[in-house]
Amino acid sequence: MHIVLVGMNHQSAPLALRERLSYQKHALPAAFKALSTASSVHECVILSTCNRVEVYAAGSVPPTQLCEELIAHISRFHNIPTTEFASLLYRKTEEEAVHHLLRVACSLDSMVIGEAQILGQVREALRTAQSVGAAGPLLSRLFEHALTAGKRVHTETEIGRGGFSIGHVAVDLASRIFDDFTHAQILILGAGKMSELAARHLIQNGVRFVVVANRTYERARDMAERLGGQAIHFEEAFETGLVQADIVISSTAAPHPILRKDNLLPIMRRRRGKPLFLIDIALPRDVAEDVNDLDNVFVYNLDDLQAYLNEHIQNREAEIHRAEAIVDEERVRFLAWRKTREVTPAIGALRSHLEQIKEEYWQIFAPRLAHLTEKDRQTIRTMMDAILDRVAKDPIQRLKTAALENTSDYDLPRALYELFGITAAEPASDQPTVPGVNAAHNETTLSVTPAEPER
Q: What was the pLDDT predicted at 314?
């Protein structure tokens, strides 16, 4: 079974393209169902965040073919010709794909090195894929190693000191805009985790007035209560909130821009020349491109924050090296598990063969042992099990050692089949057990219930 990755991130593709190719939470069930139509895709996990769109897959066809099938899926699902994005995709296979995911989970591939949100996003991507049966033994094990690596990096290194995140960067940028940051009025659009992180950092830096607006008022109220701020209905943000605010930090889950030139123009007239700073940390973007045409409106989006982050990366160089060492350790552990898994069919075949021999001879000699007590008969069976376990011990250990160290000049599984007269077992299947498997055609059809749209 081969492992491949096809994707793009903030380094390889512009925000506008990542925005078009992103997978919204409510669309993931349909995406997995579409991926299941490709017979060569046995397992898959989709990781879609504000800074990356990545599709991981496992299949039995050559990695190049598997990558092309994923690219074709991306094109069909988003209705975008491959000519518009294929050249900006990275394609990683086998150990390179494994290494990449581990670095992602450890926030070493993030826009903000050391940010903690990506670990939760990787965990959620795995859970979502597992919930519909798309992530089987191979990718589940890989993602578990990635999560372990991420946890270790955040506990064993100082790479994430201060809880640094995109939200914190947005706030730091806002503090540079105003000489006296404590007097600025902040409007938070969207009551999600990223918005709350930004708001908390604002308060820690002395901001006294934070207003929270969300389409679900109860969520805005709950966040405002936690932060000691004020909640308003989403409509009020456009009636009064945007007129009074100095800085707007927007991170909603809206599918289209909510701040546009046409609805901001009358607001800017009411502001009478007062500058408005919009920090857009949402994907898809909350602020339309034409807003930049308005006088006294200054927009920063995720791409604009990239240059600002470079100085923070330099300050984390020593911790980055320690994190990379942890990545390598978990990579080696996963690859070792994978190699021993390759000889699992031979080990299972040997155990089954010996068990069959034991049962055959027990049937022959059991009548002659009828005069013994049940306890004595059980002792004999236990002795037979112990003898066969000892017979199997050395071959099994040599199979595992050869798989891990690649030290044998022979195909030991094949030699085992020949020496013991065993019919060669099928390779270990890494295909997940999901509803609707057509074993005859090796196709997987995922039966899923559409998720509730994210608010």
A: 63
Q: Looking at the structure, do residues 243 and 384 belong to the same domain, yes or no?
A: no
Q: Does residue 351 lie within any of the structural domains?
A: yes
Q: What's the burial of 367, exposed, middle or buried (CB within 10 Å: 0-12/13-18/19+)?
A: exposed
Three-class secondary structure of residue 103 per DSSP = helix
Residue 322 located in a structural domain? no
Task: Report the distance separating Cα 245 and Cα 287, nearest Å.
Answer: 16
Write the pLDDT tens digit of every residue in 372-398.
999 998 999 999 989 988 988 888 777
Query: How far, in Å, CA of 254 to CA of 176, rounded?
Result: 28
> Is residue 232 located within the same domain as residue 298?
yes
State the catalytic residue, choosing from 44, 50, 67, 106. Answer: 50
Residue 317 falls inside a structural domain = no
* Statement to judge: residues 171 and 246 lie in one domain: yes
Q: What is the pLDDT of residue 262?
A: 93
Cα–Cα dist 372/350, whole Å: 31
| Token pair of 335 as six digits | 């690859």
CATH for 23: 3.30.460.30
Residue 106 appears among annotated catalytic residues: no
Domain with 371 in it: 344-443
Sheet-wide strand order for 2-9: 43-48, 52-59, 2-9, 90-93
Is 328 within 8 Å of 106 (Cβ atoms)?
no
Q: Which pTM was predicted?
A: 0.68
Sign of CA dihedral 219, 224, 225, 231: negative
Query: What is the tally of structural domains in the chain?
Result: 3
Name the amino acid, one letter, at 264.
L
Judge if 348 and 437 occupy the same domain. yes
Residues 158 and 201 in one domain: no
* 369 & 409 share domain: yes
Decide: residue 88, CB within 10 A, 0-12 exposed, 13-18 middle, 19+ buried.
middle
What is the rounded CA–CA span in Å between residue 128 and residue 26? 11
